[in-house]
Each structure stands twice: as structure tokens, then as C-alpha cells.
Design brief:
Structural class: alpha/beta
CATH topology: Rossmann fold
Strand content: 25-35%
Oligomer: single chain
CATH superfamily: Vaccinia Virus protein VP39
Radius of gyration: 15 Å
Number of domains: 1
Strand order of the largest sheet: 3-2-1-4-5-8-7-6
Number of strands: 8
Shape: globular
Number of helices: 5
Order of helices and strands: HEHEHEHEHEEEE
Distance between the termini: 37 Å
CATH architecture: 3-Layer(aba) Sandwich
Length: 183
């Protein structure tokens, strides 16, 4: 796994073999980041199921202001910390080690809002519909902010209150939806 663009381009991201993770393929990540490039600079980002930190590190490499990395897996948290230190980007990273529900509650209770949110949970959890509802109902996404959802075999709606589906792309069995926050 490599950083594919920005000032960290070409650097290796550790952790591709962590048990229980499913790193996003570089071609999928490249396509996603090409679609959202104009939204990244100076953005506040949430990577809710961060795994190795792949999405969040790519966002920092493309000049995101701050990335909140969250994962419940302690091994993932160690790898994220290692990657962040090796890339010398600690000043742009906040690392949380919480269950996704507790993380969302923490973010809501601290009045945090995001310009970009990456949702890439384990496919067998089937929780995305509930998470998208929660994000919308609790005002966690800024106007014109994006929610990037990677999933397989799950039924998602086109709209979640103020979140509107603007793009869907299929990569083999995997789908990626991009939702935009509107008034």
C-alpha cells in the first residue's frame, strides 16, 4: 500500500496484513481521491473505521487540515501511530480507539463537524444505513461536505435527510457511494 498523491506520494503505508482488515486497493483509492480532490485542501476529516489509516493519510498528503482516525482494533491503532510518526504528520492527526457508536457520540458531544467522512466498515457488519442516518440527524457533516462509503451487498438509500447521493461507482463486488451534505 502506498500514498498515491500529494506531498507523501510514493511512501509505503504499513499494515496491509493486519488480521481483520481489508485495505482499499490503490486503484480504488486513486479513483475516489480523483473524485474528491477539490474538497480535500484545508478540510476536517473523519476516518471512522481507519484500519491502517490509508484514507486519512492520503487526505493529509493532499493538505487536509486535520484528520480524526478511529478504529476499535488496538493493532490498527499501533500501526496508525507508527505511520503518522514515520510520515511526520502528528500535528494533523487525532487518533481515537473507540467502538464506532461511542466515537460518533463523542464527536457529536464535542460539536465536531466534518468536511469529509470515510466509512469503510467490515462488510459483514451491515451498519452503514444507521451510520448515515446518525451523521445526518446529528449534523456531523458540514454543508457541501462529503461522505465516502465503501460497501458490498448492502442496501443504501439515495438520500439521508440532508445527505444526497451524488455518485456511485462499482469496482468488482465493491461499491463506493459519495454523499454530499446540503441544506
Amino acid at each position: 500500500m502506498k500514498v498515491i498523491s500529494g506531498f507523501l506520494k510514493g511512501r509505503n503505508i504499513r499494515g496491509y496484513n493486519i488480521n481483520g482488515t481489508r485495505p482499499t486497493m490503490d486503484r480504488v483509492k486513486e479513483s475516489i481521491f480523483a473524485s474528491i480532490q477539490s474538497y480535500i485542501k484545508e478540510s476536517i476529516v473523519l476516518d471512522l473505521f481507519a484500519g491502517t489509516g490509508n484514507y486519512g493519510i492520503e487526505a493529509i498528503s493532499n493538505y487536509a487540515k486535520k484528520v480524526y482516525f478511529n478504529d476499535i482494533n488496538h493493532e490498527c491503532i499501533k500501526i496508525i501511530k507508527t505511520n503518522i510518526q514515520e510520515f511526520n504528520i502528528s500535528d494533523k492527526a487525532i487518533i481515537l480507539n473507540l467502538d464506532y457508536k461511542k466515537c460518533l457520540e463523542y464527536l457529536k458531544n464535542n460539536n465536531l463537524k466534518f468536511d469529509l467522512i470515510f466509512l469503510d466498515p467490515p462488510y459483514d457488519m451491515h451498519i452503514l444505513d444507521n451510520i448515515l442516518e446518525y451523521l445526518s440527524n446529528n449534523n456531523l457533516i458540514n454543508q457541501n461536505g462529503l461522505v465516502i462509503v465503501e460497501y458490498r451487498k448492502e442496501e443504501l438509500k439515495d438520500n439521508y435527510n440532508n445527505l444526497k447521493l451524488i455518485k456511485t461507482k462499482k469496482y468488482g463486488e465493491k461499491l463506493v457511494n459519495i454523499y454530499k451534505g446540503e441544506l
